[in-house]
Amino acid sequence: MPKLTERAVANAKPREKVYRLSDGDGLLLEVRPAGGRAWLFRFMLAGRRRDMGLGAYPAVGLKEARQKAKTAAAEVEKGIDPITHRDTAERAEAARKAERDERQARTFRGVAERLVEAQKPGWTSGKTLASWRLTLDKHAYPVIGDVPIGEITRDHVVEALTPVWTAQPATARKLQRRIASVLDYAAALGWRSTDNPATGRVLRLTKALPKQPPEQRQPSLPWQRVPAFLRVVEGMEGTAPLALRFAVLTAVRSAEVRHARWPELDFHTLTWTIPAQRMKGGKAKAMPPHRVPLTDAMLTVLAAAAVHVTGKIEGPDKLASQAALKGDALVFPSPSGLALSDAALGACIRRMNEDAPKGGPLPWQDVDGRGATPHGFRRSFRSWVDDTRPAEGEAAEKALAHEDENSVRAAYRGSDMLEQRRPLMAAWSEFCVPPAKGAEVVPIRGQR
Asked: What residue ranges are annotated as transmembrane (predicted)?
């Protein structure tokens, strides 16, 4: 009859040496000096005594230990060594698991995850990883995630792309390129042929998908209306309107403005230096920092933003001397102290458009009637250059931090044309924020 109880097992105290408590039928509880307890099954087979481990207590309780001992005893009765039998079964299960893991590794999902991990160290922006995750998780994995990578055909690719191909063309193009990258990666690993059914060329030649609608550009306010727009924004409270004003005046991307920090701003040389890792594309190793010349209008915005750090109102000419601005604080923090969200600047424009009469045109819209967006002001700036000073188009491209499409030419042209851009950005600022009539325009000391 069993001798142990749940209470006796739980209360077994350690001693100076290892000792064992018997439950009968070969089941033993071994109690160790350090306090550990483990189950053993003692049996005789072919004239030899052996002890078989059944697991540690309390992970294996008394009831489970008795069942394991009973199963092992039945094998001994048949002349089977339960230790060898268990080891053989464990090896077989390990082999089956390895096979399952190998099959999973060679599915589209497995290869895609491996590719993401391989590329992740080179992505300097978390947005790139998030974008890959979103497109794969939402559109690719539900359709082809479990398909063996070597069996993916054009039909699989079309099935994944079809739901978004015409409804969300920009998303569809990203998804297509990423599926193609995964298949190319699998081919490089030797897991499929080099034929890639997801490339744009294959899809176009086979006409596997319908023609996409023309890509719509970001809605941009006509440049002639920018001064009136900024006058309204100037009357709004909070850091988001300040960031929006600064983005319009500098013509840089909103993310670069939202994450701007005070040490990046040099008020002696009147230059804002944006680190390469914050620039679009995540090519920090190949790109230099982007420099932006600061104008009087920009400095006025920064002086207003400095109040959130210093707690006192100072003129733009005092920015260089304010010690509090030398810390690593954000220039345009959210109320929580973190960087403004991607939607914060756009929300300012939406609030400005809320006063539009129902069914009537929006006060701040592009020529197609779509509400203006923060990114669209980069186009407003470029259109202003084209219409008013077309000879400065190259400087405007540098201001927008656009990469030269000609890679050979780009490799030999190292200047960012900073000094040529100073008068261009000053003219843009004076257009956007005209001086009051009759007011004398006095450049801030130190400005070139």
From this structure: none
Q: Which secondary structure element, helix H or strand E, spans residue 54, and what is its range?
A: strand 48-57
**Residues contacting 139, CB < 8 A, separation 6+:** 160, 161, 163, 164, 171, 175
Model confidence, pTM: 0.62
Q: Are 135 and 283 in a shared domain?
A: no
Edge-first strand listing for the sheet containing 48-57: 19-24, 27-31, 37-45, 48-57
- Residues 150, 87 share a domain: no
Give yes or no: residues 83 and 122 share one domain: no
* CATH code for position 86: 3.30.160.390
- Determine, yes or no, domain membership for 211: no
What one-character-per-residue DSSP string does 234-277 give?
HT--SHHHHHHHHHHHHT--HHHHHT-BGGGEETTTTEEEE-GG
**Euclidean distance between CA atoms 431 and 424, whole angstroms:** 11
Q: Within a domain: residue 365? A: yes
Contact 44, 36 (CB under 8 A): no
pLDDT value of position 41 = 95
Cis amide prior to 58 (ω within 30 degrees): yes
d(CA 26, CA 420): 91
Among 103, 121, 142, which residue terminates a domain?
103
Contact 156, 147 (CB under 8 A): yes
For 337-353, the pLDDT digits (tens) are 899 988 999 999 999 99
**Which distant-in-sequence residues (6+ apart) come within 8 Å of 94 by Cβ?**
none
Of 43, 44, 38, 42, nearest to 19 by C-alpha is 38
pLDDT score at 446: 43
Considering the domain architecture, whether residues 144 and 272 belong to the same structural domain is answered as no
Q: Which residues span the domain enclosing 176?
A: 108-205
Within the chain, which residues score under 50 in pLDDT? 281-285, 408, 412, 439, 441-442, 444-448
